[in-house]
Write a structure and sequence with these properties.
By secondary structure, this protein is mainly alpha-helical. It has five helices and no strands.
C-alpha cells in the first residue's frame, strides 16, 4: 500500500468519525450517512476481490450466502428508515457481461 493510499484511508476513517478540517463534527444523521457510505465502499471492495478469485468451494459459498442474507436484512432495515417500499429498492442487474456470465 502506498503512502498516498494509506493517507486516503486515514482521512476516510477520520471523516467517518465526524472529523472535518477545522469544522465541527457532523450531526448524528449526517455521520450515520457518512458511515453508511464508507460501509458501501468496503462492500464494493470486497465484491471486487471476490470477482478476482471466484468462490469455488461449498463452505465458502455457504458463508457467502449467509452474508448475503445478513446484507438483505440490513437493506430491508435501511429501506424502512428511508420510508421506501420494498420494490423501490430492487435495481437492475449491473451492465457487466462478466458478472452475468459468472452468476448464470
Amino acid at each position: 500500500m502506498s503512502v498516498r493510499q494509506l493517507r486516503h484511508e486515514i482521512v476516510v476513517a477520520r471523516r467517518a468519525g465526524g472529523e472535518r478540517r477545522g469544522r465541527p463534527t457532523l450531526a448524528s444523521p449526517a455521520r450515520a450517512l457518512s458511515l453508511l457510505g464508507t460501509a458501501l465502499q468496503v462492500i464494493r471492495d470486497a465484491i471486487g476481490r471476490l470477482r478476482e478469485q471466484p468462490v469455488a468451494d461449498a463452505a465458502t459459498r455457504s458463508e457467502l450466502q449467509q452474508k448475503l442474507a445478513d446484507l438483505g436484512e440490513l437493506i430491508a432495515e435501511v429501506n424502512h428508515l428511508a420510508g421506501e417500499t420494498p420494490s423501490a429498492v430492487i435495481r437492475a442487474v449491473p451492465e457487466d457481461e462478466a458478472w452475468r456470465e459468472q452468476s448464470a
